[in-house]
Amino acid sequence: MPGFKGDILNLARALGITADQFDAVGIHAWPSIMKRIEAAFIIKTDSNTKFNWWWESFKGQQVSIFFEDGMAFEQLSQLVDAEEPVWFIGCDTDRDPSKFWLFEGTINPIQQVISEFYHFEYYIVSKKYEWLLCETDHSVLTGLGSVIPKMKRLKSAFDLH
Prior knowledge:
This protein has a seven-stranded antiparallel sheet, with helices on both faces. The chain is an alpha+beta fold. Helices cover 30% and strands 23% of the residues. The longest helix has 12 residues. InterPro entries: DUF6756 (IPR046644).
């Protein structure tokens, strides 16, 4: 399983993360999930809007925090409940930024994968489509939807430093 998806899954297994904790979403399921995410959080300008660079077209209110050290992923467990199953979308920004890969899991295994993988853009989305988190390849963490109050608290905590 070469490529971005395979690299992420191989890393997860090497870290001892099982398929029930973190795995890829099947080829037949992912198109409808991605369309629901896009409908909930992305302003689509035309039918040819690609799945890449979502962060340039977010809908509604959002809160963003810049992480100079590029370690925004370390804060994810403060924003997402440990047991909540979520969608995890990785963008292969180095090899093919037009491709998104859809996974599912919980936040702790996702944080482990992000901490060991090279810098890439990712999105974490509530399976109820209530919120979205994104870290761009510019080290900006953005939250939309019901995660905004937690993002505001986190931002206030960082502003105090």
